[in-house]
């Protein structure tokens, strides 16, 4: 048991944090060695099991990320961009695998993650599920087969608490579409239409976001042509799919060379 990779969860009280804790606890391939929350969080000092409403685990939530990460072979991090970038420095120092599920990064955050990946294994993906990563590959393939007579639109829907848009998944899908078409997403992306927008630009890749209720995560990639339309769709109904993917990435990352990887690497897609 003590030989199994030790996992620390950042943002342990969150929607994903709790799902991750349960997934690691149920696994016979890893052990939960730390649960970290932000300073001032009301769960700090409480037993993680009790805080989640179940039996005590003998593991208390802490805000001491450095001490927790020192015990870890892998850190699974679904938090915020600022928290994740700070954690990347710590995981690089500790040489622990850093699995990043957080979304909403800006260019500066991404640069800092890239720098940390010179010293540590980082697996980062806006979506850790098998289904979405398959959808990424399908999107790339369909986009490569069609020309700009087919308008590409990425539509995503999430719960009311989500703070970033477009979702990380939508951006992965848009990036795959752009790659399939051989264009730069930064030059073709069209977001936030409102008012008299003018006609759609030929070749644009459009994004729109729906927010409401408890929607776990839904993504459509629409290829709309004249007289026909292809729709590639993924619907997540359970956050366990993301947690399973993240744990798989943490195990896959053990003994890899430092670098920044994604779920396509982990899944061999
Ligand atoms: N890549 C994927 O497959 C998925 C990614 N996500 C992303 O994961 C992130 C988190 O999502 P949720 O769990 O729904 O959010 P959430 O808000 O429920 O959880 C985030 C947690 O991080 C904690 N946190 C913030 N700063 C921290 C710090 N400095 N140290 C430790 N903990 C800190 C917060 O207190 C909170 O408990 C979002 O960016 C979301 O888009 C969510 C689901 C799947
Ligand atoms: O915030 C969420 O909930 C999710 N975020 C990820 C994203 O931004 O795509 C993945 C999933 O869709 C759920």
Automatic annotation (TrEMBL):
Q: Which residues make up the binding site for NADP(+)?
A: 38
Q: What InterPro entries does the record tag this protein with?
A: DapB_C (IPR022663), DapB_N (IPR000846), DapB_N_CS (IPR022664), DHDPR_bac (IPR023940), NAD(P)-bd_dom_sf (IPR036291)
Dihydrodipicolinate reductase C-terminal domain spans which residues? Answer: 131-267
Provide the Dihydrodipicolinate reductase N-terminal domain boundaries.
7-128
Single GO molecular-function term? oxidoreductase activity, acting on CH or CH2 groups, NAD or NADP as acceptor
Q: List localization entries.
A: Cytoplasm
Record: residues binding NAD(+):
11-16, 37, 101-103, 125-128
Question: Keywords for this entry?
Answer: Amino-acid biosynthesis, Cytoplasm, Diaminopimelate biosynthesis, Lysine biosynthesis, NAD, NADP, Oxidoreductase
Q: Which residues form the active site?
A: 158 (proton donor/acceptor), 162 (proton donor)
Q: Record's Pfam families? A: DapB_C, DapB_N
Q: Give a GO cellular-component term.
A: cytosol
Pathway assignment: Amino-acid biosynthesis; L-lysine biosynthesis via DAP pathway; (S)-tetrahydrodipicolinate from L-aspartate: step 4/4
User: From which residue to which does any coiled coil extend?
Assistant: none
Domain of life from the UniProt record: Bacteria
Entry EC number(s)? 1.17.1.8
Would you indicate the residue range of the signal peptide?
Answer: none
Q: Which GO terms describe its biological process?
A: diaminopimelate biosynthetic process; lysine biosynthetic process via diaminopimelate
> Its catalytic activity?
(S)-2,3,4,5-tetrahydrodipicolinate + NAD(+) + H2O = (2S,4S)-4-hydroxy-2,3,4,5-tetrahydrodipicolinate + NADH + H(+); (S)-2,3,4,5-tetrahydrodipicolinate + NADP(+) + H2O = (2S,4S)-4-hydroxy-2,3,4,5-tetrahydrodipicolinate + NADPH + H(+)
Task: Show the stretches that span the lipid bilayer.
Answer: none
Q: What does this protein do?
A: Catalyzes the conversion of 4-hydroxy-tetrahydrodipicolinate (HTPA) to tetrahydrodipicolinate.
**How is the quaternary structure described?**
Homotetramer.
**Sequence similarity:** Belongs to the DapB family.
Designated name of the protein: 4-hydroxy-tetrahydrodipicolinate reductase
Which gene is transcribed and translated to give this protein? dapB
């Amino acid at each position: 048991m003590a030989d199994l990779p030790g996992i620390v969860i950042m943002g342990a009280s969150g929607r994903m944090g709790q799902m991750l804790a349960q997934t690691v606890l149920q696994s016979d391939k890893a052990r939960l060695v730390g649960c970290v929350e932000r300073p001032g969080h009301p769960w700090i000092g409480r037993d993680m099991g009790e805080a989640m409403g179940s039996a005590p685990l003998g593991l208390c939530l802490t805000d001491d990320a450095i001490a927790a990460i020192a015990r870890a072979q892998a850190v699974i991090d679904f938090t915020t961009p600022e928290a994740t970038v700070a954690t990347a420095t710590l995981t690089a120092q500790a040489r622990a695998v850093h699995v990043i599920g957080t979304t909403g990064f800006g260019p500066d955050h991404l640069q800092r993650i890239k720098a940390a990946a010179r010293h540590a294994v980082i697996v980062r993906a806006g979506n850790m599920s098998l289904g979405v990563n398959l959808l990424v590959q399908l999107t790339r393939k369909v986009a490569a087969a069609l020309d700009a007579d087919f308008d590409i639109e990425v539509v995503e829907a999430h719960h009311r608490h989500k703070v970033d848009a477009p979702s990380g998944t939508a951006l992965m899908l848009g990036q795959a579409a752009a790659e399939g078409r051989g264009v730069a997403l930064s030059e073709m992306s069209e977001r936030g239409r409102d008012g008299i927008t003018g006609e759609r630009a030929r070749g644009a890749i459009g994004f729109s976001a729906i927010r409401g209720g408890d929607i776990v995560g839904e993504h459509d990639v629409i290829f709309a042509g004249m007289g026909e339309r292809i729709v590639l769709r993924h619907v997540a109904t359970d956050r366990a799919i993301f947690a399973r993917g993240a744990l798989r990435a943490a195990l896959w990352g053990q003994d890899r060379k430092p670098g920044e990887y994604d779920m396509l690497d982990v899944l061999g897609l």
